[in-house]
Amino acid sequence: MAVLAVAALALAACGGGTEKTESPSASSSAPADGGGKPAAFPVTVAHKYGSTTIDKEPKTVVTLGLSDQDAALALGVKPVGAVDWFKEKPYGKWPWAKEKWGSTQPEIVGERDEYNIEKIAALKPDLVIAQYSGMKKEQYDTLSKFTKVVAQPKEHPDYGAPWQLMTQQIGKALGKDAEAAKLITDIDARFKAARDKHPEWATKTLAVADSFEAGKYSAFTKIDPKSIFFQELGFKLKPEIDTLSKPGFNVAELSAEKLNVLDVDRLVWVTSSTEANDRIKAEPLYKKLKVHQEKRDLFVPYQDPDIGAAFSFNTVLSIPYAIDEIEPLLAAVK
After folding, report:
1. For the domain that residue 79 is a member of, what is the CATH number?
2. Residue 87 half-sphere exposure, CB side, CA atoms within 13 Å?
3. Tell me, what's the pLDDT at 247?
4. Within a 13 Å sphere around the CA of 278, how many CA atoms are in the beta-carbon half?
5. Which of 46, 66, 197, 296 places its Cα 20 to 30 Å from the Cα of 111?
């Protein structure tokens, strides 16, 4: 989609503006149901493309990060617009978010990093958040002409920021720093409880992988949310996986001949079907791995139940669900 082609329409729809002027307020916002004291505005949030000053509490929020809506929901804010991730729709499906959305449904304003600027403009947001995203500078500049935009963190590659930092950024932008800090503390405590219950995990290496077609495999690097999730459970990651990936990438692409890098203490496959599981298990070179021979590999569904999706999102909403679901599966592997 040509971003600049709709800039004029976006400006017409929202009345224009810059990062230094107050965004127009909108009356069509979804109500926030979070508590807490009124925040002190203005607030300034630094990000990949500079910094954005938000002059007053945002009332109409659009999230463009693939999982950003979770942190907003946890903070009591229902985005009026969100992006789709693999046609999954970010509302009403995932068990950790259903209750937060209720009967409210956001407008779908894009898929992954392809944003529909016209739809975003029509919602008249006073804040756009894009943390778990690959937002480009051109997109940021176009959106900034008619609303406040908090792009992805600058200290990390796109899609590589820790969930704690993204939650902090979203909390600050919404004027809910204290609430965000409390969420982070509570989730950190959940991870610590799991580590304390399973101290043996600290001595085990773990890798997360998937495969969408025969002969091609993907292992996730240390910056991927899935790897981060298991590292916070106490497991050690395998550095060789990162050396096989391109710089800044969250995945290393492997041929069957490279599957030996996955011969770890625990191997978690995130798969979409039993057919995919059977195909992986039938690979002759995979059969030679000790992790498979000794039944230390786990085949976890992405959805139904939504275990893989939960630790793929790795947000303040999805993490408790993910821990509850994966802990007994990991504990059963000896």
Report:
1. 3.40.50.1980
2. 0
3. 87
4. 3
5. 46
Q: Band of the pLDDT at 40, cuts 50, 70, 90?
A: confident
DSSP-assigned letter for residue 56: S
The residue among 154, 187, 220 that closes a domain is 187
62-119 pLDDT, tens per residue?
A: 999 999 999 999 999 999 999 988 676 766 679 999 999 999 889 999 998 999 999 9
Q: What are phi and psi of 149, to 5 degrees?
A: -130, 125
Q: Is the peptide bond before 305 cis (omega within 30 degrees of 0)?
A: yes
The total number of structural domains that make up the chain: 2
Residue 193 inside a domain? The answer is: no
Q: Strand 61-63 vs strand 149-150: parallel, antiparallel, or unpaired?
A: unpaired
Q: Using DSSP, state whether 95 is helix, strand or coil.
A: coil
Taking the CA atoms of residue 286, residue 288, residue 292 and residue 294 in that order, the dihedral angle to the nearest 10 degrees is 180
pLDDT for 37? 56
What is the rounded distance in angstroms from the CA atom of residue 255 to the CA atom of residue 213? Answer: 11
Q: How many separate helices (H) and strands (E) can be counted in the chain? A: 14, 13
Residue that is last in its domain, among 187, 222, 244:
187
Residues 108, 110, 113, 115, CA torsion sign: negative
8 lies in the same domain as 142: yes
pTM more than 0.90: no
Residue type, 103: S
Residue 134's nearest CA partner among 147, 116, 115 is: 115
Q: Which two tokens stand for residue 90?
A: 């970010």
Contacts of 99 (CB under 8 A, 6+ apart): none
19-32 per-position pLDDT tens digit: 333 333 332 334 44
Tell me the residue range of the domain where 214 lies: 198-331
| Region of 68 on the Ramachandran plot (φ > 0 left; ψ -120 to 50 alpha; else beta) | alpha
